[in-house]
Amino acid sequence: MENSKVFSMKFAKVYDLLVQKAQRKNRTRQEVDEIICWMTGYGEEEIARLRESGVEYAAFFEGAPCMNPNCSLVTGKVCGITVEEIADPMMRKIRILDKLVDELAKGKKMENILRG
To answer: Helix or strand or coil: residue 80?
Structure first.
């Protein structure tokens, strides 16, 4: 899938997919929200509002109040792609969030996922 297709996907659709991935492994929507809040600086109410607004995925990240500097500590592969080697900053953010939710689904402790 080319970047423009991912960037133009609705945040609500991607959010639902992330939550479903977590829930299949007995994790919760609240844990996904905690990860998103940690990464982007959005609050839970803002995430809910953005889900309803129809905002595109790229715009969701562009509007993030405060990207967590510890996102740079997220390394490894997601979908066969090494996160730290992704050149496009927007695609790197997208893949980092996917990697964090993957870690959640694999049973990692929240403090490790959030690089605490």
So the answer is: coil
Q: Would you say 21 and 109 are in contact if contact means Cβ atoms under 8 Å apart? A: no
pLDDT at 3: 72
- The token pair that represents 6 in the structure block: 């991912």
Chain centre distance of CA 81: 15
Interacting residues of 113 by C-beta distance below 8 A, sequence separation 6+: 35, 100, 103, 104
Task: Tabulate helix, strand, coil % of the chain (nearest 5).
Answer: 65, 5, 30
This model's pTM is above 0.90 = yes
Mind listing the pLDDT tens digit for each residue in 26-74?
999 999 999 999 999 999 999 999 999 999 999 999 999 999 999 999 9
> What element of type H or E holds 16?
helix 11-24
